[in-house]
Amino acid sequence: MSLQWIGFVLIAVVITGCAATSKYDKAAFYELRPRSILVLPPTNASIEVNAPYTFLSTISEPLAEKGYYVFPVAVIDQFLKENGVPTPDEMHMIPLDKIRQHIGADAVLYVNISDWGQKFQIISSQTVVRAHMRLVDTRTATQLWEADVSATQDSTSPNQSGFLAAVANAVADQIIGSLTDHTPGIARNANRNAIYNHSQGLPDGPYRDELKHP
Q1: How far apart are CA 106 and CA 141, in angstroms?
Q2: Does the N terminus or the C terminus of the chain have fewer Cβ atoms within 10 A?
Q3: What is the number of structural domains in the chain?
Q4: 3-state secondary structure of 153
Q5: Helices (H), the chain
Q6: Which domain range does residue 20 map to?
Q7: What is the pTM of this model?
Q8: Distance CA 139, CA 104 (A)
């Protein structure tokens, strides 16, 4: 096997699936019209312990671009920990009226991660991001919007065929996978697909026009 081909395999990675399903209560959303969103650290059902905070690094930008004020996720995380709420599971149990009283958010985005990270098979590898998001009004506890987010990235080995080539590709991808984390980019794309879904994405926030016409 030539070094040139190994190098080619290492960079031959392609996103093969990215899907998002979302829905929202239009009447409730346009009646309540949230202006600010607090994103709580996600609860995590995957085996990747760093998944919640990797996800957090990808969610603020698309929400802000949609026209909402997004409370700084690192500041909120630290604030809650300093006030006796150390884990995402406990953070998700905070009463909404307390969040509104002490932080002032109009809505809270709850996220649950169901699967996350790189999966290595004998002759293939796949990076997976799956999560569920729901936006809840802090005044009325009404669910305003929700979305299922799912994205995968598969390894490929162009111009090669057969079992030995597939095994070589899997080995090479495990090597590069141990050095490179693809999940932030995959999560970022998946979040955008959900938030910007043409029919059931998150409606524009109050600051959207200001972003369009500075």
Answers
A1: 10
A2: C
A3: 1
A4: strand
A5: 3-11, 26-32, 51-65, 73-82, 88-91, 96-102, 163-177, 183-195, 208-212
A6: 3-212
A7: 0.79
A8: 10
Identify whether the C-beta of residue 103 lies closer than 8 Å to the C-beta of residue 38.
yes
State the Rg of the chain over Cα: 20
Residues 71 and 69: their CA atoms lie apart, in Å, by: 7
Coil, helix or strand for 13? strand
- Pull the structure tokens for residue 192: 């955008």
Bridge partners of residue 147, in order along the sequence: 22, 133
Task: Return mean pLDDT, the chain.
Answer: 82
* Residue 131 structure tokens: 């999560």
pLDDT given for residue 10 in this prediction: 37
Tokens for 68, please give them.
């909402």
Total residue length of the chain:
214
- Fill in the amino acid letter for 189: N
Report, in this order, helix, strand and coil percent for the chain, each rounded to 5. 40, 30, 30
Domain of 13, CATH number, reads 3.40.50.10610
Task: Write the pLDDT tens digit of every residue in 27-38.
Answer: 899 999 999 999
State both tokens at 6. Answer: 């190994």
